[in-house]
Amino acid sequence: MRKRIVAGNWKMNMEGVEAHTLFNALNDKNAPLDNKTVIIVSPPSIYLSEFSALKNPHIHLAAQNCSEHENGARTGDISASMLASINVDYCLVGHSERRQYYNEVDSLLKEKVDRLLDNNVSPIFCCGENLPEREQGRHFEVIQKQIENALFHLSDDEIKKITIAYEPIWAIGTGKTASAEQAQEVHAYIRSVLTEKYSSETSNQIAILYGGSCKPGNAKELFFNKDVDGGLIGGAALNFDSFSSIINAF
Ligand code: PGA
Question: Per the confidence metrics, is the pTM higher than 0.70?
Answer without folding.
Answer: yes
